Amino acid sequence: MRIVLLPGDGIGAEVVAAAARVLRELPLELELEERLFGGAAIRESGNPLPPETLAACRGADAVLLGAVGLPELDRDEVRPEHGLIRLRGELDVYANLRPARGHGVDLLVVRELVGGLYYGERGTRADGTVFDTMEYRPAQVERIARRAFEIARGRRGQVTSVDKANILATSRLWRGVVERVAPGYPDVELAHMLVDNCGLQLVLAPGQFDVLLTENTFGDILSDVAAGLTGGLGLAGSASLGDGRPGIFEPVHGSAPDIAGRGIANPAAMLRSAALMLRHGLDEPAEAERLEAAVDAALLSAPTPDLGGNATTVEYVDAVVSALGA
Ligand code: IPM
Ligand code: MG
What we know:
Elements: E1 2-8, H1 12-24, E2 31-34, H2 39-45, H3 51-58, E3 62-67, H4 80-90, E4 95-102, E5 105-112, E6 122-124, E7 130-132, H5 138-153, E8 158-163, H6 169-181, E9 189-194, H7 195-204, E10 211-214, H8 216-229, E11 237-241, E12 247-251, H9 268-281, H10 285-301, H11 313-325
Helix pairs in contact: 1-9, 1-11, 5-6, 7-8, 9-10, 10-11
Bound molecules: 3-isopropylmalic acid and magnesium ion.
């Protein structure tokens, strides 16, 4: 199985190196190849997603991605984030799964990943007005809704579809399509919730949620809230899936420039993303479970500073490797 590693920016390099080390410990035939992406690729060629990198990703079974975003490339023109948005679109990984577990929470954000504001027309008018546009086609909503219902079947059987249907036309389309798809999944309970209320409910009573189905921007925001409820971005992994291979597996984010290069980044989010890759991207559920258990064990024995501990990235990974062998 061929896996393309895209370290990207900031702590991306450190956490991807951690994942590569752990993956090599598993009894699987994995071919890992690293490619330029994000800020490093901009510096080399002016393009955050060079054609060779995209071609390697297309030919791979899975893509494991660290992070993008650099303060020194925080500008209007070419930026590292453009590489990520383009890669997601090119591979058509429309279903972004972001689990959050712990502290009485066990939910999964199913975020539509290749539509909405991130991909709509944008521009500047002569009078200085700047605009981004949100568009959704019915088929785009239908495929993510079906994915959410299917996943809910394997969980507690509840989908909460999030929208802003009291204001947005795209949300009314969203709600209509979700309603139309729902009868095909009579074993799943469907509720609709306005996004502002969902933010409130996540903070007040997150235990009520099983699967949260969202469009792209709402899911971006709510998945950070969900991560915040369960230990922060250092723990939050994600899977971005299309209808076939390759999927992209990346932390919910942060290139964390403030701690980059210091060897103290928490690689748990990256390792959990690697476990999601084993489960959803490479059909190796047993190894996924083993890795998840080792990640959890190491969080107790060797927590990094973001969790109040003092383990370095390498010490944490040592603990994961030893838990895997135990
Ligand atoms: C995420 C991140 C990205 C996004 C950024 C880095 C472009 O915040 O994966 O949630 O907005 O999708
Ligand atoms: Mg985000």
